[in-house]
C-alpha cells in the first residue's frame, strides 16, 4: 500500500508541480533535507519548509552535485507515486459497480422465494448448507396447517345440530343418513390424538428466536385499495387474515439456532442435531400415520371446503408430502426449501458473485429482500436510491384474497396500488423495473376450478375465464400503469412466473442477470 503525506508543493515557472513527500513506502527513499542552519538570512525565516529546502550557502561543487542528484531522485519518487495513484484511480473507475437489485411486492408475493432461487443458482453450496434450518421451518409450516385443520374440526363439531351423532343424522322419515359435513367419531378421535402436536410450535418458535408470532402492528403504507373492487371474499380469505404467522428479522441469524455448532461438514446429515432435546422429528414421525389419515379423510375436505379453507393454495403447504416430511431423518429437498414459508421482517442484503458464462465476466450482485407487509413498506424507501433494478412481484392468483394485515383490502388491488406507487416514484426514475406476475400455478388451478376473475375485478368484464385471457389482461393493466405513471418513458419488462418452480424461474433469472450485466458493463465503460 502507498502511504505518504504531502509536505509542500512547488510550481516551477513553466515546469511541473514538484511534490516533496514524507514517504513510508518501502521502495522509496526518504529525502535527506539540507541543514536549515545555513543561509538563513536570505530566506523567509517564517517558512520552515523554505528554510529546509534552501541549499547551503557555502555549498561546494561536489555537494551541489550530490544535492541535485538527491533532489532528482526525490522528484522521480514523487512522479512514480503520482503515476501509481493515477493507475489505481483508473483501476477503481474500471471496476464495475455492484449490480443492485431490490425485491419488492406485498407479503407472500414470493420475494424471499425469488431470493432463494438466486442463491440456489449462484451459491448452491451455501444454499444447501442451510437445509437443516429449513427443516425446522417446514416442520413449523406442517404444524401450522394442522392447527388450521384442528380448529376447523372444532368449529364444525360445535356447529352441528343435536340430531347428529357420530357423523350420522336421522332423516325426517326416520332413516339414518350419512352426514358428510360434520366430523364423525373417527375424525374427532384423530383430532384428540393430534392436539399435542401444537405444543411443538412453541418450542420451534422459541428456538427460532422469533420476535413476532402474529400480525405485526400497522403503520403508514404506500398504497390504499381502490373503490372499484368487490370485497365479498370467500371465508378462506377472512380466516387467513386471522391466522398467526411466524416471522423473523431478515438475515441469516435465525438459521444458526438449528445448526450444530460442532459440525465439520455442510452435509445436512451432520448439520442437524438429531438428538437435540425437544427436536420435533420423533413426535412428527410417531404421529405421521394419524396425520396422513386425517388429511386423506374425505369428510375433512368437505368440512374445510364448507368453511372456505383452501390449504393447497396457502403458503407453506406440505400436506401432500407428509410421508416424506415426517421421516425420522428428513432432510428438505431444494423444492421443499422453495416452498417453505417464513415471513420476512425488515430488510436484508445478500451479496453474491455472478459470472457471465460467455464473456467470463464476473459481477458482484447485491440483492435486497424486504418484508412486504404494509407496516414494513416505509422501510423500503431508504433503499430506493442507487438501485439498478427492482423485481416487483405481484401474485396474480390472489385476486380473490384479502391482505392478512388489512382484511378489507383485496390483494390484487393492493398490488396494483403498490405498483403505481413504485413506478411513479421519482427516486426510481432511472431504475429498471421488472414485473413478475407470480403464482401462475395457483392462478391456473383457481381458474380451472371455476373461480371467476370478473367477480373480484369487474373491469375484466365478459372476457373468458381462462388463463390466457386473464394473464394478457393483467399484463396490460400493469403495463398501462407503467406507461401513464412513470416520470419518464421506460421499458416494460414482465414475466409470468411460478417461483416455486426452480427450472422455469432459473431461466427467467438468468436472462435478467445477463441483461443487468450488459447494462452494468455499458455503464462502467461510460464513466471511464
Ligand atoms: N404455489 C406457489 N407458491 C409460491 C410461489 N411463489 C412463492 N410461493 C410460496 O408463497 C409463500 C410466500 O412466499 P415468500 O417468498 O415467503 O413471500 P414474501 O414476498 O417474501 O413475503 P414476506 O416475507 O411476508 O414479505 C412461500 O411459501 C412460497 O413457497 C408460486 O409461484 N407458486
Ligand atoms: Mg419474505
Automatic annotation (TrEMBL):
Keywords: GTP-binding, Magnesium, Metal-binding, Nucleotide-binding, Transducer. GO terms for cellular component: cytoplasm; heterotrimeric G-protein complex. CDD domains: G-alpha. One of its GO terms (biological process) is adenylate cyclase-modulating G protein-coupled receptor signaling pathway. Signal peptide: none annotated. One of its GO terms (molecular function) is G protein-coupled receptor binding. It holds the Pfam family G-alpha. Mg(2+) binds at residue 344. GTP binds at residues 338-344, 369-373, 438-441, 499. PANTHER family: GTP-BINDING PROTEIN ALPHA SUBUNIT, GUANINE NUCLEOTIDE-BINDING PROTEIN SUBUNIT ALPHA HOMOLOG. This is Guanine nucleotide binding protein, alpha subunit. It comes from Mycena belliarum.
Amino acid at each position: 500500500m502507498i502511504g505518504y503525506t504531502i509536505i509542500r508543493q512547488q510550481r516551477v515557472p513553466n515546469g511541473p508541480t514538484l511534490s516533496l513527500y514524507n514517504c513510508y513506502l518501502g521502495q522509496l527513499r526518504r529525502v535527506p533535507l539540507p541543514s536549515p542552519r545555513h543561509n538563513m538570512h536570505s530566506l523567509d525565516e517564517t517558512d520552515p519548509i523554505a528554510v529546509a529546502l534552501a541549499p547551503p550557502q557555502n555549498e561546494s561543487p561536489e555537494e551541489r552535485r550530490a544535492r541535485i542528484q538527491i533532489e532528482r531522485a526525490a522528484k522521480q519518487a514523487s512522479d512514480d507515486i503520482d503515476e501509481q495513484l493515477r493507475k489505481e484511480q483508473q483501476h477503481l473507475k474500471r471496476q464495475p459497480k455492484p449490480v443492485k437489485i431490490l425485491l419488492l411486492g406485498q407479503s407472500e408475493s414470493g420475494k424471499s422465494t425469488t431470493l432463494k432461487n438466486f442463491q440456489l443458482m449462484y451459491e448452491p453450496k451455501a444454499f444447501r448448507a442451510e437445509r437443516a434450518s429449513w427443516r425446522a421451518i417446514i416442520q413449523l409450516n406442517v404444524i401450522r396447517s394442522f392447527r388450521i385443520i384442528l380448529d376447523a374440526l372444532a368449529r364444525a363439531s360445535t356447529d352441528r345440530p343435536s340430531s347428529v351423532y357420530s357423523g350420522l343424522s336421522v332423516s325426517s322419515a326416520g332413516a339414518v343418513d350419512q352426514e358428510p359435513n360434520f366430523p364423525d367419531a373417527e375424525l374427532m378421535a384423530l383430532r384428540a390424538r393430534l392436539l399435542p402436536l401444537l405444543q411443538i410450535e412453541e418450542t420451534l418458535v422459541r428456538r427460532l428466536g422469533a420476535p413476532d408470532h402474529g400480525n405485526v402492528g400497522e403503520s403508514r403504507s404506500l398504497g390504499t385499495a381502490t373503490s372499484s373492487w368487490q370485497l365479498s371474499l370467500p371465508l378462506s380469505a377472512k380466516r387467513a387474515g386471522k391466522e398467526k404467522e411466524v416471522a423473523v428479522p431478515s438475515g441469516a441469524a435465525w438459521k444458526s439456532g438449528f445448526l450444530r455448532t460442532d459440525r465439520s461438514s455442510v452435509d445436512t446429515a451432520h448439520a442437524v442435531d438429531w438428538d437435540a432435546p425437544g427436536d420435533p422429528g420423533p413426535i412428527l414421525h410417531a404421529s405421521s400415520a394419524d396425520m396422513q389419515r386425517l388429511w386423506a379423510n374425505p369428510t375433512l375436505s368437505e368440512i374445510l371446503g364448507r368453511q372456505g379453507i383452501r390449504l393447497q393454495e396457502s403458503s407453506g403447504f406440505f400436506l401432500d408430502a407428509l410421508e416424506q416430511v415426517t421421516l425420522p431423518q428428513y432432510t428438505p429437498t431444494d423444492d421443499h426449501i422453495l416452498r417453505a414459508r417464513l415471513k420476512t421482517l425488515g430488510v436484508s442484503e445478500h451479496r453474491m458473485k455472478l459470472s457471465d458464462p460467455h464473456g467470463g465476466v464476473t459481477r458482484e450482485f447485491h440483492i435486497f429482500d424486504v418484508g412486504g407487509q404494509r407496516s414494513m413498506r416505509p422501510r423500503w424507501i431508504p433503499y430506493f436510491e442507487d438501485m439498478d433494478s427492482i423485481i416487483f412481484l405481484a401474485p396474480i392468483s390472489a385476486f380473490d384474497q384479502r391482505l392478512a394485515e388489512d382484511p378489507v383490502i383485496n390483494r390484487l388491488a393492493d398490488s396494483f396500488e403498490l405498483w403505481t406507487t413504485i413506478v411513479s416514484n421519482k427516486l426510481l426514475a432511472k431504475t429498471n423495473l421488472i414485473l413478475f406476475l407470480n403464482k401462475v400455478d395457483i392462478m391456473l388451478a383457481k381458474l380451472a376450478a371455476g373461480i371467476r376473475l370478473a367477480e373480484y375485478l369487474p373491469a375484466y368484464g365478459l372476457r373468458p375465464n381462462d388463463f390466457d385471457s386473464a394473464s394478457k389482461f393483467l399484463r396490460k393493466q400493469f403495463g398501462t400503469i407503467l406507461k401513464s405513471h412513470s416520470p419518464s418513458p421506460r421499458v416494460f419488462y414482465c414475466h409470468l412466473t411460478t417461483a416455486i418452480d426452480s427450472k422455469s424461474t432459473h431461466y427467467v433469472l438468468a436472462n435478467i442477470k445477463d441483461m443487468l450485466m450488459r447494462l452494468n458493463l455499458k455503464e462502467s465503460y461510460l464513466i471511464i
